[in-house]
Structure formats: C-alpha cells, structure tokens
Amino acid sequence: MTLLDYVAEQQQFIDRTLERLIPGEQQPPEIIHRAMRYSLFAGGKRIRPILCLAAASAVSDTAPGAEVAACALECVHTYSLIHDDLPALDNDDLRRGRPTCHKQFGEAIAILAGDALLTVAFQMLSEMPGADGDRKVRLIRELSTAAGTVGGMIGGQVADLEGERQEPTAELLERIHRAKTGALLRASVRMGAICAGANEAQLDALTCYGEHIGLAFQIVDDILDVEQSSEALGKTAGKDAQQHKITFPVVYGLEESHRMAKEECEAARRALEPFGERARRLWEIAGLIVERTK
User: Fold this and answer.
1) Stated pTM of the model
2) How far is Cα 195 from Cα 132, in angstroms, rounded to an integer?
3) pLDDT band at 39 (very low <50, low <70, confident <90, very high)
4) Is the peptide bond before 29 cis (omega within 30 degrees of 0)?
5) Of 124, 126, 155, 255, which one is least surrounded by beta carbons within 10 A?
6) Share of the chain above pLDDT 90, in %
7) What is the pLDDT of residue 235?
8) What does the alpha-carbon distance between residue 219 and residue 11 come to, in Å, rounded to a whole number?
C-alpha cells in the first residue's frame, strides 16, 4: 500500500470513529452538535490522529483504545482552530476551504462548539475501552499538558499574540511554535506509544521524533502562508504578514526556512532507527509533512 493510500485509509477510519463518538446533529441541543460536526468533518488532514495510530503500530501490533486517543487529539485540534479563527484572535473567514465556524453559526455558538470539542475529548479518554485506569490517567495528563498553558498549545498561542508587538527573534519564534504547534504533535506520537505499552526507551525515541516533526510542520506552515494562495491552502493566505506574526520566513528567510524544514525531517527520521521497519509509516509521514503544499 502506498503512503497516500495508507493516509486515505486512516482518514476514513478516523472519520468513522469520530462519527460514532460525536453526538449526531439530531441530538439536542441540535445547533451545537451541528456546529461541532461542521468544523470536525470539514475535510481536515487528520495528521495528529494518523501520527497517533502510526506511533502505536511502531511499538506493537496491539494498542487498545488507540483510535479513541486519535479522535480525542483531533477534537482538541479542531477546537483550537475554531477559537483561533474568532474575531478576538486571528479574525479569519475561511478554514478548510469553507466559512469558519463563527461565520456559519455566529460567535457565541462557535465559542461553545470549541468548548464542547475540548470537553468531549477528555470524556472519550475517560471512557476508553480496553485501557485500565492508570493508562487513561496517563493519556489524559498527556493531552491536557499538551493543550495547556505551561509549554502547551494555549501558552504558545498567548506567546504568539504577544509576539505581534515584539521584535522577531529566533528564541521567541522557537518558544512560540514548540508550544503552539509542536506540543500537540509531540503528544500525538506519545499517546499512540502509551496506548501500545511503550517502554521508556521507545517513548523517548518517539518523543524526539515528535519534537522534530512538530517544528518541521510549523516551518512548512509558515512557508506555505507566503508561497501559496488562499484557494490552495483552504484558508486565508498572507495572514501572518498582515498580523505581524513572528514566523520562520520573517526570522530566517524563505530559503533558509526550506533548509531547516528538511533538516528537522532528517532528525525526526534518525530518531526512528530503533524501530526499524515497524516505523516505516512514521518515516514516510515525516517526508509528507515537509513536502506538502497545503
């Protein structure tokens, strides 16, 4: 099976699982469930849940509950996008090729839809089948830390907002993106590894992979915001420059940013060496992240 076939198959599997875990549109209160599903099933790449499942497979053939952990990650990611797009933050009208949640449902419902997706993610983990209490606690701790304020996504978002009024530096740039984007990507592989019963050495290796791939992902995101059109990206291009964001092209230039993304990809792949052929999909995904065009 080619990588693209594998990704398509995993995307379909994740969507089927989300369909089962998320309340239907006819479940009262209907409008909040419509808004949640509107953003969740808008055609996202599902990179985080795919990384979770691929990491689990790198460790073991059995990983009870890994598909639930993968879906919890996607819920947290989608919540962050809904809130990022709000007028008080990035004020964006387009996401995944369609109007943003607040444009479709209004700001109040969009805020609540993001809140609901964050909440249901932890409900999923607490009810995960096939996992004992200790493993559930580890997964909940992993996801809540990655999404939180100390070295996590929210902390990174705060630093990103404050950075709009600061001189762009390499140190500030790395601090923002290791938290804002990197923390959830790192948690994706760690949560898959935990589901599969990884030992400390395996968890350390996958953590290293996740850190490098997280940085590579953000570098490429910053490059695409400069080089691609809104139609190609499915979101508004050029927003970083408009909002004076601290990005890799701003600090390093486009040519050096391209080189850095490839360097992070190579470092991520080296971290996978202890897993051999079992980590083939993670090895391939690293390349996919760096070579993507949207």
Assistant:
1) 0.94
2) 10
3) very high
4) yes
5) 255
6) 79
7) 58
8) 24
The pLDDT, as a whole number, for residue 241 is: 62
Q: Quickly list DSSP for the chain.
A: --HHHHHHHHHHHHHHHHHHHSPPTTSSSHHHHHHHHHHHTS----HHHHHHHHHHHHH-S--TTHHHHHHHHHHHHHHHHHHHTSTTTT--SEETTEE-HHHHH-HHHHHHHHHHHHHHHHHHHHT-TT--HHHHHHHHHHHHHHHSSSSSHHHHHHHHHHHTTS---HHHHHHHHHHHTHHHHHHHHHHHHHHTT--HHHHHHHHHHHHHHHHHHHHHHHHHHHHS-HHHHTS-TTHHHHTT---HHHHH-HHHHHHHHHHHHHHHHHHTGGGGGGGHHHHHHHHHHHH---
Predicted confidence band at 227 (pLDDT cuts at 50, 70, 90)? Answer: confident
Residue span of the structural domain in which 124 resides: 3-291
Half-sphere exposure of 281 (CA within 13 A, CB side): 23
pLDDT in tens, 41-87: 998 899 999 999 999 999 999 999 999 999 999 999 999 999 999 99
Q: How many CB atoms lie within 10 A of CB 34?
A: 17
At 214, list the tokens: 């997280």
- Residue 262, pLDDT > 90, answer yes
In this structure, are residues 65 and 129 in contact, taking their beta carbons and an 8 Å threshold?
A: yes
Q: How is residue 292 written in tokens?
A: 């993507």
CA–CA separation, 199 and 203 (whole Å): 6
| Total domains present in the chain | 1
User: Domain of 120: which CATH number?
Assistant: 1.10.600.10
CA diameter of the chain: 51
